Amino acid sequence: MATRHGIDLDKARALHARETADFLASRPRSLSLAQRADEHLLFGVPLHWMDDWPTPASLYLAEACGARLTDVDGHVYADFCLGDTGAMFGHSPAPVAEAIARESARGMTAMLPGEDALWVAGELARRFGLPVWQFALSASDANRFAIRWARAATGRDALLVFNGCYHGTVDDVFVDLVDGAAVPRASLLGQVYDVTEHSRVVEFNDLAALESALADGCVACVLAEPAMTNIGMVLPDPGYWEQAQDIIRRHGSLLLLDETHTISCGPGGYGAAHGLRPDMLVLGKPLAGGLPAAAYGFSAELAARAQQAKRAAPPGHSGIGTTLSASRLACAAMRANLAEVMTEDNYRIMFERAGQLAKGLRELFARFALPWCVTQLGARCEFQFAAKPPRNGSEAGAAQDEELERCIHLYLLNRGLLITPFHNMLLLSPHATEGDARRLLEAFGEWLEGVAA
């Protein structure tokens, strides 16, 4: 009997084959649309990573509302993926939908400021403690622009990231740590220059490595999630960020926090909840309730340095910003979402539901004596195939098992339970119910009954 992570692989594979057949037999309309998509869509999907779901053919969406999805064949799903955070507060929150309907008839974009932008910037300043803001279409753009401002303001060229990080489609961050050396990430397509010339990488939670990488005074900024979320959840050691911030500032570098996922920790993200003091901060996906929008903030000192750098530069395009950034429609959606959806009350509901689910998962794994761990980060929780929570990207990467993930995810999906396809993350919106969590735990338990070694 072949086993891995406490699972009988022969049983898991046999069950997965049956689940694959069930998926195809019960979703004829999705299958038909997937076959049609091959004609005009690269990889048969609008964006190639949509092909990463654990399904034998693309699952086509009919509608989504709150914590529910309905596919084109009429199957309804409790959604624990929520657009990988884009719909963290539920699909089509009523205040956001109303703002979009109202404002879309009054001019969607004009490359001119409106009053909503002022309100949003003021609210972001209140929540995150950074007084000056700019807008973008996505966290990828916001990170890219923030890196440019950091380099312009400091006169330094290097960027430091943590091994296993993901900060969107920013070329500079696609570096991995292999045998102690920085190397370009092998999966990055079409890259024509060596990103390690200007990017450095160290392990998360390694203060000595951070100190060493910053010592020559060439790093403009450290770009980090305050807790890693994209290679599997990795939390900071107690006291890590207090010491790391001191190291970063002592070497004259800036701290740029990407809170796109860790906004699950509260209205001001992880940084506000834990007293971090970033020089810049990026917030993306959920900011406008699912409409493309992002924002990035500056400390007062850095804002002054950034403005000085722009005024001292020759006239012309800075390479920062896009025409549709801060559109009238996006600003209206951000205002509605911040004012009426991203509220303390909704966060309390989300934290409670996530805590219940995390507790249930731990009890389930203990019942089957599995060497798996569960980590919670506010409204987000994740299970990993490791006995102890990983402390860095290398440990988190080693705990991943794509085959087992696909088996688990498809089994749950066939029972109306959708979780994030890229790893084992579960996100709880304010619309999630105790019944949703209970159904997930029951289905997961049934899968383990059939495949545990």
TrEMBL record:
GO terms for molecular function: transaminase activity. The keyword DNA-binding does not apply. It comes from the Bacteria. The keyword Transferase applies. Its cofactor is pyridoxal 5'-phosphate. Keywords: Aminotransferase, Pyridoxal phosphate, Transferase. Belongs to the class-III pyridoxal-phosphate-dependent aminotransferase family. This is Aspartate aminotransferase family protein. It comes from Chromobacterium phragmitis. The lineage of its organism: Bacteria, Pseudomonadati, Pseudomonadota, Betaproteobacteria, Neisseriales.
